[in-house]
Amino acid sequence: MSPVRPTVARHRRVLVALATLGLLLGACSSSADDGSATATTAEGTVAAGVDYSSFGPFKVGTRSIEAGGVEVELFYPVNPDDTATGSAITSLSSDVAFPESLRTVIAEAAPFLIQQLPVELYEGASVSGDGPFPVLLYSHGAGGHPAYYVNTMAHSASWGYVVAAPNHPSRNLAANVGGTGAQAATTDVEDLVATVAELDTINADANDPLHLAMDTGRLSVAGHSAGGGAAARLAVSDEAITSRLVTIIGQAPAPPVSLSAIIGNPDATEEERSAALEAALAELTPPSLPVLLVAGERDAVIPLARVEANYLWLDAPKQLVVLANAGHNPVLDVCAPIRAQGGLVAAAGGLAEAFGPSVGALLARGEDGCVEGYLDPQAGFDVTRHLTVAQLRWALGQDPGRASLEPTFLRDTFGTAIGVVEQDVP
Question: Rounded to two decimals, what is the model's pTM?
Fold first, then answer.
């Protein structure tokens, strides 16, 4: 596999890295095999951090597959000079998340629920010959859809990963709106397992365009909200998959326990709920994998205290990065347009009368952190996308160390967007 050569996109951040190197007395600059800057000291070679928040060296191809009856979206690396082999996609409407039967109704009755997302994708383009590429499984949040994370997933693919995101029938937007989640034939973890099986089949098929393009022996799994819980449950529930997993990334993650353990009695105090959560986690064995958790300081959906309890339960190596002044959704592509239009709840009007009272709660979750007064969405995108790639590259051994994940580098690079950072990395 040809090495993916990281680039530092912002001039200011190049200066930050160089200034850091300058503080290493007696250091002389050199170039690491993977393209990152290094400094040679009396103690040996120390890699400088690299800013991965901008898109990487590859363009991104996309295609849809089916795994166990579930739709799965794929994003994969394409060499820049091979984009003509695919159909260019420059815009994506978030209405694809709604059941087809409701799209016209939503467009007329509640157009504020539909956002146009600028994208740069090449449907059906030829996969880069620089693989095989490690695989990242991505699990969307409750009431979500892969389309809500399309640029987030394409960003990872641009750095040399194949990203596979199932559209979970048990808890996607269609299930939330139509109340069909309980009738789904599969759970979210089963969707992820089926996705891996289908990727194995595709990889082995000499007639498939992705034949041998994926290193399915090196899997990582990431997820937002309920998807973060699914990622952790996958790692502790399927031994065949666990043996191939390299790392877990939870973004505003739900703990990997039953919701009843978190919520329980609706009249319970937060202290009682925290105690119930800690007791439920104590019954589980943490996954024996490196884990990165990213949390919002002001998250009203998965409060920071619950993510911290999740972090304490995990074994090392582990890291928790808190985004200052962030809510639940800094990873959502639709966060920026939601903020630009003034949120979701304020525009809802009589929507609850048409679709039921649960819609109000769904809208509140969808706009949490995506209104004025919270962390700017672009800052949230920059941090979460950087952290995902940096964690993958460290866990996969593509970077020589953890410099791109170190608290000092994160604060120097992303400034006030970085809140508390905790890590336990032996």
Answer: 0.86
